[in-house]
Specification:
Blueprint (H helix, E strand, L loop, with lengths): L1 E4 L14 H10 L2 E5 L10 H6 L3 E3 L10 E3 L6 H4 L7 E4 L7 H9 L3 E4 L14 H20 L7 E3 L2 E3 L3 E5 L3 H12 L3 E5 L5 H7 L3 E2 L20 H17 L2 E4 L14 H5 L6 E4 L16 E3 L5 E3 L9 H18 L1 E2 L4 E2 L6 H6 E4 L2 E2 L2 H9 L1
Parallel strand pairs: 1-2, 1-4, 2-3, 4-5, 5-6, 9-10, 9-12, 10-11, 12-13, 13-15
Antiparallel strand pairs: 6-18, 7-8, 14-15, 16-17, 18-19
């Protein structure tokens, strides 16, 4: 079975879907791998490292039309999908809720397409979960980015010239990114507070040495996958009032409510930001999904009239591409290894497997994922 990995064509995307280590593991399964030259240049993996692991490098991506397996990072285009070999398998980002045209293109090309974002969040699939792996990295780097931009230091310092008070960090949303942001800010010596609508998050916050901000929103629960349930308009207003006071005291605010398949909820309004201190920094980790912060501009830094800095990088994890690529490539390897048939030397798409049922979008000329099959039928 022959696999091909093209390099990213998107400006500003520094990650890659294959590292030399993941290539070695895939080749040990029995795959023959080729990749576009310069695949890992932006993420710190030179061509020589790929060559040393047995990857054949190509001058361009023309080989994509001959491959049985394509590993992607960029969202493909309908034009690039049309070049793929019928019966081949594409594995990568698809963002299917907002790109149904790509599903139609894969079906038309008779290409099986796996959306890495759709992998079920189960114990068995944890090592394949790209949303978690990338948000872990983003949560860490959000604190580093904010600390670099802040006009203060984070830890308390006792010096002969006086005592410097610790900076205050407020993390909104205690999911994967939020927990990593809390842990990182604590390690850097900041005074950390956090809020989440799920009561279960309080214990997680306290276990990291941070203070949980309590806002009475009435009865709350979470989905079976651990996400917070949608709030009513009344609950949203109560939440904003409670958070506004904490934001006004904070030097750094990090919002993490990035909802796959839905527009991000607005957590911080302009009125709330107007009460924040000049020089304070907001990092909006949901910028790519519309933003949690009123005034966020995707992939830009904005300074408000009262001097608050809003950072809206859409893929913050891409600013530390070496390790972001490492975990993404590992997610892909874990998925392929799970479905690898050693005797046949190929990938066996087991349609009874719950992981495949959750992430396989198209197969044999049809959109087969139930959610999108029904949506397209209704359209």
């Amino acid at each position: 079975m022959e696999g091909f990995i093209p390099k990213s064509k998107i400006h500003g995307e520094n990650r890659t879907a294959l590292t030399p280590d993941s290539a070695e593991k895939l080749i040990s399964l029995g795959l023959q791998l080729s990749a576009e030259s310069g695949l890992g240049d932006k993420s710190g993996y030179p061509d020589t490292d790929y060559n040393a692991k047995g990857v054949t490098l190509k001058a361009d991506d023309a080989s994509i039309s001959q491959a049985d397996l394509i590993l992607g990072l960029d969202l493909p285009t309908p034009e690039s999908i049309a070049k793929l070999k019928p019966g081949s398998l594409f594995v990568g980002y698809l963002d299917p809720f907002f790109n149904e045209d790509l599903l139609k293109a894969f079906a038309a090309a008779k290409v099986s397409a796996i959306s890495m974002e759709m992998i079920p969040r189960t114990t068995l699939a944890q090592k394949m979960d790209v949303l978690s792996s990338q948000m872990n990295v983003a949560g860490y780097y959000a604190v580093i980015k904010a600390a670099e931009r802040l006009n203060k230091i984070l830890p308390m310092m006792m010096t002969p010239a006086g005592t410097i008070s610790p900076s205050r960090v407020f993390v909104i949303g205690v999911g994967v990114a939020g927990l990593q942001a809390i842990a990182t800010a604590k390690r850097l010596g900041a005074r950390v507070e956090a809020f989440d609508t799920r009561p279960v998050a309080e214990e997680q916050v306290k276990s990291l040495g941070a203070k949980f901000v309590k806002i009475d929103l009435g009865e709350m629960s979470q989905t079976h996958q651990g996400y917070a349930m949608a709030l009513t308009p009344g609950q949203i207003e109560l939440q904003r009032q409670g958070m506004a006071k904490v934001c006004g005291q904070s030097d750094i605010v990090i919002t993490t409510a990035k909802l796959f398949g839905r527009k991000a909820p607005t957590l911080l309004t302009k009125d709330m930001i107007s009460g924040m201190k000049p020089g304070s920094v907001i990092v909006d980790l949901a910028a790519a999904g519309g933003g949690n912060v009123e005034g966020t501009v995707l992939n830009e830094e904005v300074v408000t009239d009262n001097g608050v800095v809003i950072i809206g990088n859409g893929t913050l994890e891409g600013e530390v591409p070496y390790h972001a690529s490492q975990v993404y490539a590992s997610n892909i390897y874990s998925l392929l290894e799970h479905f690898w048939d050693k005797e046949a030397g190929t990938i066996n798409l087991n349609f009874e497997d719950e992981i495949l049922q959750g992430c396989l979008m198209t197969h044999d000329g049809e959109v087969i994922h139930p959610t999108f099959k029904e949506k397209l039928a209704e359209a």
